[in-house]
Design a protein that fits this description.
The protein contains 6 helices and 15 strands. The chain is an alpha+beta fold. It has 2 domains: 108 residues, Immunoglobulin-like (Sandwich), CATH 2.60.40.2250; 176 residues, Roll (C8orf32 fold). It has a 5-stranded antiparallel β-sheet with strand order 12-11-10-9-13. A 4-stranded antiparallel β-sheet has the order 3-6-1-15, with no helix packed on it.
């Protein structure tokens, strides 16, 4: 499947900003059955300097600096992406979860995709006794790891309420877990915390999800949004497998990966420093169009 993606981020400031330095993780990745046909990143006002690099986890990072006063900032990503992932393995064929935990702890590979980096607590996905106990119910002794993770994914989907008003970006995991409500970021962090509490390597994935309107409803441009889900390491033979607890589905060709990290802090779409005073307003518009199969 080929997708055309448009992601526009607009900041409006109460008072002029003297200068700004932004760090962006907006470009889709090239790996895991996903390839980028084309992409562009446009700024208004125009940046004085732009530098592109890859971070430790292999995400594309664009750094830009605007040195003149401005009252608004518009960042527009346009990309064409081909997604053709292999089907997930049969969950029952994956190794026992205890074996995966032992292999991950004994890993002597330390590159950005090593499971060793994803078994420890992180700032936004700390160890949490409640999340660990919740996950443990899906992992009786010797259960295949992907079978247990898929069960946990479905339980989070069934037991937690999707409510954009329940949490904010900075809401701690403890509060989202206690309220049993939140958004995709919260559900991903809760699932990751539970898996890591059992010693299983789990990564946070940011990206897009193809949305299909209800029968008879028109598809609205700009009505899509960024999304977040979980990737679980299932051993050297099965690798990393994606699970989406917000929608209770395995990750296949409907998901477009932007960045991989330990939690949201590693993959924040736009970060940086600005010199100014007053409040700011943020508007985000995302459109994901399937071009063909």
């Amino acid at each position: 499947m080929i997708y055309d993606v448009t992601h526009i981020t607009t900041y409006k400031y109460d008072a002029p900003v003297a200068s700004a330095t932004c760090v962006m993780r907006l470009a889709p990745r090239e790996d895991g059955g996903q390839s980028v046909i084309s992409r562009s990143l446009e700024f208004s006002p125009q940046a004085e300097s732009v530098r592109e690099r890859k971070d430790f986890f292999g995400n594309v990072v664009c750094e830009k600096r605007i040195a003149k006063p401005h009252t608004s900032l518009r960042i527009a990503l346009r990309a064409s992406v081909r997604v053709d992932r292999p089907a997930p393995p049969a969950p029952a064929l994956t190794p026992a979860w205890e074996t995966i935990a032992e292999w991950a702890a004994a890993s002597n590979v330390l590159d950005g995709r090593s499971p060793a980096h994803f078994i420890y607590p992180s700032r936004l996905a700390p160890l949490h006794a409640g999340a660990t106990d919740h996950a443990r119910a899906s992992f009786p002794p010797d259960r295949p790891v992907l079978e247990g993770a898929a069960d946990l994914m479905r339980r989070i989907h069934a037991e937690f309420i999707y409510d954009p008003k329940a949490t904010q970006v900075a809401t701690p995991l403890d509060q989202a877990f206690g309220r049993r409500s939140g958004v995709c970021q919260d559900f991903a962090h809760i699932m990751i915390a539970g898996l890591r509490g059992l010693g299983l390597p789990a990564a946070y994935i940011s990206g897009y999800l193809r949305t299909i309107p209800a029968p008879g409803q028109a598809r609205l441009e700009g009505a899509d949004s960024t999304h977040a889900w979980v990737s679980l390491w299932c051993g050297p033979d099965f690798g990393w497998q994606g699970l989406d607890p917000t929608n209770a589905m395995m990750v296949e060709d409907e998901h477009i990966v932007i960045a991989i990290g330990r939690d949201y802090a590693d993959v924040s779409p736009v970060d940086g420093v600005l010199f100014g005073a007053g409040k700011q307003e943020l508007e985000v518009s995302v459109d994901v169009q399937a071009v063909n199969g």
